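A favour, since you know our structure tokens better than I do. Would you make up a two-line entry for one protein for me to read? Write everything out right here, beneath this request.
=====
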Amino acid sequence: MPGKFCVTLTHCRTDGDKATLAFVVANAALGSGKETIVFCSSDGVWSAVQGEAEKVNEGEPFAPLRELVTKFVRGGGKILVCSPCMKKRAIAPEQLIEGAQPAGGATLVEWLSESPAMVAY
């Protein structure tokens, strides 16, 4: 089933459960053949910073966040990280994990203007 799917993520350090669920759903969308992005903003930017996803493990029945993020990127998913949110938290682009890239709100608006389905965590 072709199409696009967007997951927006605003939590990581503040709520590991939401970060985990966001990547569970993002991986499900990839598995369904959707071109999928995860747009990380607010506290969610931490999920794309080296060493941070390893700190989140919500336990069974979920895989650790780091495994979910790795599976997503290896499966062809894209992680876009809010540039102003990074700046607010003093996160430099070189601190992002492989497969993540800084992006502004205009990038998200452009993606959503193509009418993809979206879910927010």
